[in-house]
Amino acid sequence: MGLFPLKGKGAFVTPVRRTLAAMQELGTRATRAGLGSLEKLTQSGVDIVAPGVHLVPRDRVEGLLAVHGSSKIGAWFRFRGGLTGTVGTFFDDRDALAMVDLLVGKSPGTTRKIGELEESALAEMTNIALNGALNDVAEAYGLRFLTEPPVVAYGPKIDLAGLVPEPGAGDHSVVVETRFRAAGGTEGTLLLLFAVSGESEA
Amino acid sequence: MARILVVDDAVFMRTILRDILTEADHEVVGEAATGEDAVERFSELRPDLVTMDLVMPGAGGIEALSRILDVDPDARVIIVSAVGQREDVETALDVGASDFLTKPFDKEKVVATVESVLSTVTGREAR
Predict the structure, then answer these.
(1) Model pTM?
(2) In the CATH scheme, what is the homologous superfamily, with its name and number, of domain B3-117?
(3) What is the ipTM of this complex?
(4) Contact at 8 Å (CB) between B16 and B111?
């Protein structure tokens, strides 16, 4: 099935249900590509633990993402172009340290704290994995994305409102959250958030 | 051995590239984290080759590439970026990049690309 609602540079004006179906397909593709990049970066297999797709009105996105406010560390960046949105990764304390070990090729348990280099590793991992996802979607659907440099934040400083697409980008958001597991049981969440415009089917 | 300037806003990526290039017997003579800094460092160091990220705070990689080529039209610049959409590659090559590597990359691919670009004869060398 193609991405039928696309008109010009990503104008989604469709019934909500059709938008969700199309975005599920796009989100699944992007997630697979993102995790594929992560496998290459960590040189190990990455499995999906729990996928989830939600279509929510813009004003409820922040509430849906509240669970990530308790993460140890989050890294994300905004994109615009064929679609507008935010993509990112989130890790709990132990998993953030373990992911750094994987990225720098150190034995598990080597990294004890997140300093400048470790923070940069997690940001760059997010940058590479999720640009990989957007590159794949761009190629498959003939879209073009312009991305920003990643932002990193810790725990309570994670600005959940900053993850919500800007007003005007769309009145709904499709949120694709995928809990994944890398080598050594290291878990994290891959988030893809696309702004869409939808009409109710009432 | 070539003298190389590594440009990337991520210290993690600069460290990885430095390790790969040093292991391949090249000398990383400088690093830069922004496009503006890259142009300044290039003018000051005159390296044999530059690896250049695309998306950075401030001036991005394309603008820095263009300004470096204003300083030295024979400059060899390899774009190394996570952003690898067709338009990005075409734009970079049109502006004058010597090659384009998409992250994540293999160490062998980086070394091979660097060697390939270094082996090309520039206009100045031909004269």
Answers:
(1) 0.88
(2) Response regulator (3.40.50.2300)
(3) 0.90
(4) no
